[in-house]
């Protein structure tokens, strides 16, 4: 995970100061459970108060409490997409994040924000674009860290074939073509409508491909996955000149488009991208070994992080999901923050990938 959105302000901005209250709240798929979420939220608030007063006294608690309660007004419990909610309160402001993976209910009060569960929530979750295409229209959806939303397109987007091509429905009459010669003539029926539809489809698909390439792909450099029928996907891929178009998979088009059906439709491709990301970090670890850029030992990794020498910090999953605060977990969290501050990335892996170590570092190349 690299720096994302205003998480950068939390770990980099010197004007954002502690103490920090970090709350993590799992969300549930049924809106009938809203009251239960509210109960959990209030429970975390009580725990936060207890921890805050024990560490910092009662003087500033009321200010933090007001920020936490005010944050509730900004929270949208989007059960269809988000699996968890992270809230980080600083001395100056409040931030909240919708996480695509479920994290445990917990709260931490400390001099620095507790970001390991946020990293866990986003870990390996891919970002890519979805082009929902038919022969008559197209829409775009974006997947950011595993969360799907509809993309707003510019006014000149060819969202409708009829408007983009400025055509009427082709004449359905059959034209007879005469061929042959000599002692006989051969006649073949030509379906004018079928020919016109094929030509229009090709032209429309080229227009859509050009728009996606120019206005989206060349700007965000994300993969584009088609959501279309098998035939339409095949035709579009043959015509496309977009190097970001994923040629491997096509998403099945749901009968009804909503967050729930989109999540189900993207499950397979999301898993593929997650697996690819896991393989990349494992390959990076192997390469670091061979290039002598692999660093073990909490003390050595921590020193390298503070000096900005780490390209990547790799942490065992257990440190990010353990609800009980330990010295090792606090150190890992600080190393993650320092790594992000210097522009590095933080990844979580199965301990077996890093020889059952709790944390390792990959040094920057020379």
Features:
five-stranded mixed sheet; 60s Ribosomal Protein L30, Chain: A; Nucleotidyltransferase, domain 5; alpha+beta; 366 residues; 11 helices; Translation, Eukaryotic Peptide Chain Release Factor Subunit 1, Chain A; 15 strands
Describe the structure.
The chain is of the alpha+beta class and 366 residues long. The protein has 3 domains: 1-122, Translation, Eukaryotic Peptide Chain Release Factor Subunit 1, Chain A (2-Layer Sandwich), CATH 3.30.960; 128-271, eRF1 domain 2 (Nucleotidyltransferase, domain 5, 2-Layer Sandwich); 291-366, 60s Ribosomal Protein L30, Chain: A (2-Layer Sandwich). It has 11 helices and 15 strands. The strands form 4 sheets. A 5-stranded mixed beta sheet has the order 7-6-5-10-11, with helices on both faces. A hairpin with a 2-residue loop joins strand 8 and strand 9. Helix 9 (298-306) packs parallel to helix 11 (327-341). The two termini are 22 Å apart. Residues 31-35 and 169-183 have low confidence and may be disordered.
